[in-house]
Amino acid sequence: MRISFIRRALVASLVAMLPFSSALAQDIKERTFKYALQNPKGHPLASGAEKFAELVAAKSGGKMKVNVFPGGTLGGDAPNVSALQGGTIDFVALNSGILASQVKDFEVYDFPFMFANAKEADAVVDGPFGQKLHAKLADKGIIGLGYMELGFRNITNSKRPINTVEDIAGLKLRVIPNAINVDWVKALGANPTPLAFPEVYAALEQKAIDGQENPLNVILANKFAEVQKHLAITNHQYNPQSLIFSKKVWDQLSPPERKVLQDAAAEAIVFQRKTSREAAGSNLADLKKAGMQVTEFNGAEQAKLREKLKPVIEKHGAPIAATVAELQAELAKARK
User: Fold this and answer.
1) Is residue 91 part of a domain?
2) Strands 238-246, 91-95: parallel, antiparallel or unpaired by DSSP?
3) 154 has which bridge partners?
4) Which of 178, 189, 213, 316 has the fewest C-beta atoms under 10 angstroms from its C-beta?
5) CATH code, 123
6) Is there a domain that residue 269 lies in?
7) In angstroms, what CA-CA distances link 39 with 43, 97, 106, 182, 196?
8) Overall domain count for the chain
């Protein structure tokens, strides 16, 4: 008797769902999207993109397909964003700070030593602050779907070990092409060279630049150990990664199609961060095996580095003071 009741209830539930499922299926069309990113296959960001593509296919019943183009195969970040605004690339994952070229407030994500750890960063980007910044992109033809992560950045070079802040002076370092990154490198007495990421390996190999700065997973995945001998663990900057979508294309999607992308993004972001953080422990060991000589700043040098970069933060914080105050308020909540 009990089994019969359960069966009847299950059938009734399935029948009730049929009109919705049918309508949902009708509102999801056959679509193919392009997803561009700078890091190669095997990097946590590429793994996150692949997971996203898998989830979109599953949630759309195979109707919506995402083709992933890793390793800068569709160009650097700036051309990718322009193509996304024009609707010829659909998704881009990139350092959130790069979006300061669209909305200046995003520069706050590139402030040195803004986040002490990944937990703080998650609280900020997943909360009202991160959502508010992404919402500001809509007027620029961009939809922000959420934040993946790149991690904490460190400095490599081919010339000498970096044991002190003074050792950085004179080095020609590649930086992300935006003003705050140029300024903090100058503040350390080094020579900043803005370059699109796909150009970095060749520039290092040809000695056009002495070094660069990136998280360990980027250094490893892009085989920079082949052309860089010295690695300094400075953890000077944390990079959220914005997963963005073309508003031009978004406006053509039905509500169920948008929901597929939003739900897939939320799940892929959790997966990507977990993948990135689980790999962090082995990345350093692998770089040492690859021949890199590793140094790490002691407490005094770390404090000296922070002090030297304070004027840069003050300079770039002044024009976006309200945004900086909002971020600091969110950080204060997270630290409680």
Assistant:
1) yes
2) antiparallel
3) 214
4) 189
5) 3.40.190.170
6) yes
7) 6, 17, 21, 22, 12
8) 1
- Per the rule left: phi > 0, alpha: psi between -120 and 50, beta: everything else, 158 is alpha
Residues 6+ away with beta carbon under 8 Å from 308: 165, 187, 188
Q: Per this entry, what is the length of the chain?
A: 336
CB distance 326 to 129 below 8 Å: yes
Query: Rounded to two decimals, what is the model's pTM?
Result: 0.89
Say which residues have a Cβ less than 8 Å from residue 76's Cβ, sequence separation at least 6: 38, 196, 197, 198, 199
* The token pair that represents 193 in the structure block: 């060279």
Neighbours of 243 (CB within 10 A): 27
First to last CA, the chain: 55
**282 domain-assigned:** yes
- Integer angstrom CA distances of residue 250 from 131, 132, 237: 17, 18, 32
CB 102 within 8 A of CB 140: yes
| Structural domain span for residue 133 | 29-335
pLDDT in tens, the chain (336 residues): 444 444 444 444 444 444 435 445 678 999 999 999 999 999 999 999 999 999 999 999 999 999 999 999 999 999 999 999 999 999 999 999 999 999 999 999 999 999 999 999 999 999 999 999 999 999 999 999 999 999 999 999 999 999 999 999 999 999 998 899 999 999 999 999 999 999 999 999 999 999 999 999 999 999 999 999 999 999 999 999 999 999 999 999 999 999 999 999 999 999 999 999 998 879 999 999 999 999 999 899 999 999 999 999 999 999 999 999 999 999 999 998
- Angle, in degrees to the nearest 10, between helices 179-187 and 299-317: 140
Q: Distance (Å, rounded) from C-alpha 121 to C-alpha 116?
A: 8
- Confirm whether 177 is domain-assigned: yes
- In this structure, are residues 27 and 256 in contact, taking their beta carbons and an 8 Å threshold? yes
Query: Burial code of 1-28, b = ≥16 C-beta within 10 A, e = fewer?
Result: eeeeeeeeeeeeeeeeeeeeeeebeeeb
pLDDT tens profile 187-206:
999 999 999 999 999 999 99
